[in-house]
Amino acid sequence: MMTLVRKILGALILFLDRVFVPVVKVQRSPADQARVDAKLATWTLYHLEACPFCVKVRREMKRLAVTIPMKEINADPRHHEELMAGGKMDQVPCLRYFDDSGTEHWMYESDDINAFFAKLGV
Q1: Closest alpha carbon to 67 in 93, 40, 95, 46
Q2: CA separation for the pair 106, 114 (Å, rounded)
Q3: CATH of residue 87
Q4: Assuming Cys at both sites, which of 17, 60, 83, 88 could form a disulfide with 114, CB separation 3.0 to 4.6 Å?
Q5: Alpha-carbon distance 122 to 113, whole Å?
């Protein structure tokens, strides 16, 4: 029964996400967008397609015109293994990023990830 409820809710979440597309708040010159894209190219967002918290992060990425490679942890077992090996927690969304010194970090919680994006000014 719970599986059916989750499938229905997941389908509803994805439907609403596609119907109500967020407005892009950030406009960059092509050169600035290329700079941002290059900086974030090594980052990864581990997510589940129908997870409402993952949808929240993906929508903020759209608003901020941020493109980060994404790995759906149910689509490929290797993605889940990477998440567990690096982040050590079976939770999504999870942002794997590198700071200016090249140190790898694993950030969980949609609100923390969205606040991090805002703080970066990307």
Answers
A1: 40
A2: 14
A3: 3.40.30.10
A4: 60
A5: 12
Which burial class, exposed, middle or buried, applies to 13 when counting CB atoms under 10 A from its CB (0-12, 13-18, 19+)? Answer: middle
Question: Phi and psi (nearest 5°) for 97?
Answer: -140, 170
* 31-79 tens-digit pLDDT: 999 999 998 999 999 999 999 999 999 999 999 999 999 999 999 999 9
Q: State the residue range of the domain holding 100.
A: 2-120
DSSP secondary structure code for residue 91 in this structure:
-
Say how far apart CA 44 and CA 118 lie, in whole Å: 17
Number of domains in the chain: 1
Residue 43 phi/psi, 5-degree rounding, is: -80, 160
